């Protein structure tokens, strides 16, 4: 554990971040009184689950069939085949 004053923390901030990332506990103090702890950020992992739209959303059986010629011409212009 390292306790550093605010002035020293400002001067050596990058170094202190690297120490914290390596697992060292860094405490920043003012006049010897601990104020904050510098710790690595940990992304919260959320478990994804499916099925929220079951019974609400339906996908037609022809969903991945080729698009009609008229619709393709609207995207790409005349003569699309």
Task: Give a brief rundown of this model.
This protein is an alpha+beta fold and 81 residues long. The protein contains 3 helices and 3 strands.
Which terms summarize this structure?
single chain; 81 residues; alpha+beta; YefM-like fold; 3-stranded mixed sheet; 3 helices; 28% helix; 19% strand
CATH topology of the domain at 2-38: YefM-like fold
- How many E-type strands? 3
Number of distinct helices: 3
Summarize model confidence as the mean pLDDT: 91
Strand-residue fraction? 15-25%
Task: Please give the share of residues in helix.
Answer: 25-40%
How is the quaternary structure best described?
single chain
In words, what does this structure look like?
The protein has a three-stranded mixed β-sheet with strand order 1-2-3. The chain is of the alpha+beta class and 81 residues long. It has a domain at 2-38: YefM-like domain (YefM-like fold, 3-Layer(aba) Sandwich), CATH 3.40.1620.10. It has helices at residues 6-11, 13-21, 69-76, and strands spanning 2-5, 26-30, 33-38. The mean pLDDT is 91.
Question: Which helices and strands appear, and what pairs or packs with what?
Answer:
Layout: E1 2-5, H1 6-11, H2 13-21, E2 26-30, E3 33-38, H3 69-76
Parallel strand pairs: 1-2
Antiparallel strand pairs: 2-3
């Amino acid at each position: 554990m390292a306790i550093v004053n605010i002035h020293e923390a400002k001067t050596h901030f990058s170094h202190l971040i690297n120490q914290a990332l390596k697992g060292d506990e860094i405490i920043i103090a003012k006049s010897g009184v601990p104020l904050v702890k510098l710790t690595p950020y940990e992304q919260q992992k959320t478990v994804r689950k499916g099925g929220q739209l079951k019974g609400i959303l339906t996908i037609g059986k022809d969903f991945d069939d080729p698009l009609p010629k008229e619709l393709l011409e609207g995207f790409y212009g005349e003569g699309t085949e």
